[in-house]
Amino acid sequence: EIPIAVDTDGMMAASIESFTDDTGSTFANAARYHMGRSEWEPAVALLDHSINIESTWYNTWLKAEALHESGADNKSAYKLAQKAMKMGAEAENFFWKGKVEKALAEWPKR
């Protein structure tokens, strides 16, 4: 057998670096990749960019989650989760409603 190795992390990093698509969801999804690797700083930077393009419940929630999981700023994370809940209630496809509700019930408010 011949071992096959693919540098998935390198390919993903190169893809993120070469983004030319200026949609907020593209940057939010790239942030999710970094969040999955506990790379909080690049995730938050990408989410800030995503939110600057278009603020949605999705990218607002992801930023709340990143701030909370990293332990960087629980107060801001809670406020962003509240904002994501409000935005999501007005959206057609609020598919993480339960996750946001759970966070609001469990996360510290300050």
Index terms:
globular, 110 residues, mainly alpha, 70% helix, 0% strand, 6 helices
Overview of this protein structure:
The model has no long low-confidence stretch (mean pLDDT 88). This protein has helices at 8-17, 24-36, 40-53, 57-70, 74-89, 97-106. With 110 residues, it is mainly α. Helix 2 (24-36) packs antiparallel against helix 3 (40-53), helix 4 packs antiparallel against helix 5 (74-89) and helix 5 (74-89) runs antiparallel to helix 6. It starts with 7 loop residues before the first helix and ends with a helix. It is 70% helix and 0% strand. It is built from six helices and no strands.
Short description:
This protein is mainly α and about 110 residues long. The chain has helices at about 10-15, 25-35, 40-55, 55-70, 75-90, 95-105. Helix 2 (about 25-35) runs antiparallel to helix 3 (about 40-55).
